Amino acid sequence: QGQLEQSGAEVKKPGASVTVSCKASGYTFTDYHMHWVRQAPGQGLEWIGWIYPKTGATYYAPKFQGRVTLTRETSLSTAYMELTSLTSDDTAMYYCTKETWHFGLWGRGTRVTVSS
Amino acid sequence: DIVVTQSPDSLAVSLGERATINCKSSQSVLNSSTNKKHLAWYQKKPGQPPKLLIYWASTRESGVPDRFIASGSETDFTLTITSLQAEDVAVYYCQQYCNLPRSFGQGTKVEIK
Known about the structure:
The structure holds two protein chains of two kinds.
Chain A: E1 3-6, E2 10-12, E3 18-25, E4 34-39, E5 45-52, E6 57-60, E7 68-73, E8 78-83, E9 92-100, E10 102-106, E11 110-114
Parallel strand pairs in A: 2-11
Antiparallel strand pairs in A: 1-3, 3-8, 4-5, 4-9, 5-6, 7-8, 9-10, 9-11
Chain B: E1 4-7, E2 10-13, E3 19-25, E4 30-31, E5 36-37, E6 39-44, E7 51-55, E8 59-60, E9 68-72, E10 76-81, E11 90-96, E12 103-104, E13 108-112
């Protein structure tokens, strides 16, 4: 099954960018799509997009297109999510999750707070 | 895009009683290449990541208690907790993984009456 270790909490000002990392272990990183999901305070789960580490192919939810970039470093078995032009609406817990069709393995989440 | 809608938004059930959550997708989630229904259920507790309970609409994840039962057609699905336990207090989400973009229902909060 494996493990996903995410980077620590971030506090950013409006208009800034944030990068969250997700280090995979216990499985072959390049064989499975990595998805990103967020949950704002008091809100539901929101799908952001995925990256296929083997090729670097990506797909983004329309809401985040143009503002999110998913990348990976295969030598480090690590996926990254960069979100730009942050607003208070981006304050949320961000999760990476490994796809085996469904999402059976999740990171513990990275809290991103956007505040002036 | 497939829109996934859950009902009710919340429910309160006595310990040991049945809790039923509904999930409806705007399109069929039956995938012709797999011949499976691409729908999953997750349990979300505060401070924890989501936990996969059910996949392929009705297959229980390893280690999930058998009081969690799920079923459904191509567009209408149900998650039933047959005998609610205190540790089942959580928000439950259904999610389709048939099409991109992936989508979650809005969640159903389950509490103890």
